[in-house]
Amino acid sequence: MTDALLAGLRRVVGERHCLADPALRAGYETDWTGRFGGRALSVVRPRTTEEVAAVLRACVDARVGVVPQGGNTGLVGGSVPRGGEVVLSTRRLSEQGPIDVEAGEVTVGAGAVLASVQDAVRPAGWDVGVDFGARDSATIGGMVATNAGGVHVLRHGPMRRQVGGFEAVMADGTILRRLPGMAKDNTGYDMAGLLAGSEGTLAVITSVRLRLVPRLEHRAVAVIGLASARAAVAVASTLRRGLASVMAIELFTDDGLDLVLGHGGLAAPMAARHPFYLLVEAGDAVADVAGALASGLEGQGLADDAVLADDEGGRHRLWQLRERHTEAINADGVPHKLDVSVPLNRYAELVERVPAAVAEADPAARTIVYGHVGDGNLHVNVLGPGPDDPAVDDAVLELVLELGGSVSAEHGIGVAKVDWLVRDRGEAAVAAMRAIKDAWDPSGILNPGVLFRP
Ligand code: FAD
Ligand code: MLT
Ligand code: ZN
User: Is the pLDDT at 84 greater than 80, yes or no?
Assistant: First the structure.
């Protein structure tokens, strides 16, 4: 059966794109963190939607699981095999259509990488509403499948808000197509909205009609040193209310900064060190925003503990201090990554209580937090515990539920948080989700083990 399936897959995508060599497959079999992965039966790289449909039909017939994979930058283990599945890489579905400059829309293949779409649309005065540090590898299809958030959610919303239309292939090979997609479209269920955040469990997304946002060329970035998480939340809230051009409000700590400086050979943003830092970005299409950001900081008495840049190089240097946390942590070990959100009025309490919760579960563990404070989203990273030891994960997620939060803010459930989905959403909601899954994928071949226990 397996040999017949492999022969069938080779016929569909061609010998070269059905990877048999373990060395070639390795990069598709382990996740970005190094915490998750397994052997694939095969890695296939279809070039067209019809090839995707044929791959899925062959896998349904053979009752073999399929793991859709884009850039493999996901952080919850959903993009890599657990053992014996076919990995369906979308990277060759990377075609980019012409930009509809009037409407501010573009249709791109699911495998198009975020940075290349940004490069294509920016000269036309448009931009992609979602942006984050994995832009050079993450694909548009993967971003929709995870409903990715990133640094500009407070301005533009998450990936679900950027999707105007889609093309996707269901498990049995049926092609669903709603391209280009209308801004107003009340024709039954919102399938694009459903696919956003489905993590490869309902269909393989092959094409996306992106609703673009105006390019905001005038930008300024400030890093502000603060004494406490409470002060950081208060400043963030005042800036959100008073600074109309605010695009991002990010939090990091002095421990995290140390790690990033050591790993990246970067310079500290200011001479004095502070327990917490906020990175604030403001942007506008026409007006100069640096002055407004500077006076917003002055108004709060923060100017002495802040640095501000409005030139491209300076802004990039400040952003590096926040964006390079992920790689700096990975360089020190295999992290447990807990991406959570809580109501903003509990955010400071979460930051304050996380170290003790982790220490109680594992006294030797090391915790580094940072996140998108403007969205109530904290990234708790723990180094030390073995990859399969759930103690610190459980301690942090228990605390998050106690504070009325969500166990996944933007990375998704994947395989990392399957047991916590029921704790967070409740039996009835998860049963309703499972009914949707069963209707779309009755043989259960799409990403088995993700969202639900198989
Ligand atoms: P993959 O990792 O390949 O897949 C992710 C999930 O989507 C898997 O479940 C997979 O099966 C499914 N999938 C992928 N493509 C398809 C498709 N075409 N059809 C159906 N299912 C599919 N995430 C954020 O939300 N915000 C951040 O700020 C952020 N920053 C990051 C920074 C770094 C340095 C890194 C490494 C990751 C970051 N991430 C962030 C996580 C990750 O980049 C996002 O989840 C991203 O959306 C994944 O895209 P991908 O193409 O790599 O998908
Ligand atoms: C981030 O905000 O940097 C990303 O979500 C990645 C991470 O959590 O490390
Ligand atoms: Zn994030």
Answer: yes
Interval 253-276: pLDDT, tens: 999 999 999 999 999 999 999 999
Residue bearing the CA closest to ligand 1, atom 42: 74
Any domain includes 64? yes
Using CB distances shorter than 6 Å, the residues near ligand 1 are: 32, 67-75, 78-79, 90, 110, 132-134, 138-139, 141-143, 145-146, 148-150, 199-200, 204-205, 326, 410-411, 447, 450
- 145 touches 200 (CB < 8 A): yes
Q: What is the pLDDT of residue 287?
A: 86
Is residue 154 domain-resident? yes
Instruction: Inform me whether the pLDDT recorded for 20 exceeds 90.
Output: no
Residue with CA nearest ligand 2 atom 9 = 326
Q: What is the mean pLDDT of the chain?
A: 97
Q: How confident is the model at residue 240 (pLDDT cuts 50, 70, 90)?
A: very high
Are residues 372 and 300 part of one domain? no
Domain boundary among 302, 326, 350: 326
Q: Are residues 202 and 297 in the same domain?
A: no
Q: How far apart are the first and last CA of the chain?
A: 22
Cα–Cα distance for residue pair 228/276, rounded to 1 Å: 6
Of 197, 93, 194, 192, the closest CA to residue 145 belongs to: 197
Q: List b or e across 169-183, with b for residues whose CB sees 16 or more CB atoms inside 10 angstroms.
A: bbbebeebebeebee
| Atom number in ligand 1 closest to CA 68 | 11
> Is residue 113 domain-resident?
yes
Going by the DSSP 8-state scheme, the letter that residue 132 receives in this structure is -
| Residue of 132, 247, 260 with the most ligand 1 atoms within 8 Å of its CB, for mutation | 132
Whether 91 is in the pocket of ligand 2, judged by its Cβ within 6 Å, is no
Residue with tokens 């904290």: 378
Which ligand sits nearest to residue 75's alpha carbon?
A: 1
| Number of domains present in the structure of the chain | 4
Ligand 2 atom with least separation from CA of 410 = 5
Q: Supply the range of the domain harboring residue 271.
A: 218-326
* pLDDT for 160: 98
pLDDT surpassing 80 at residue 181: no
pLDDT attached to residue 1: 72
Arithmetic mean of pLDDT, 266-295:
95
C-alpha closest to that of 302 among 236, 250, 248: 236
Helices first, then strands: H and E counts in the chain: 16, 17
Q: Which ligand is nearest to the CA of 28?
A: 1
Question: In the listed set 214, 238, 272, which residue is the last one of a domain according to the structure?
Answer: 214
- Give the span between the Cα atoms of 289 and 155, in whole angstroms: 15
Q: Is the pLDDT confidence value at 212 over 90?
A: yes
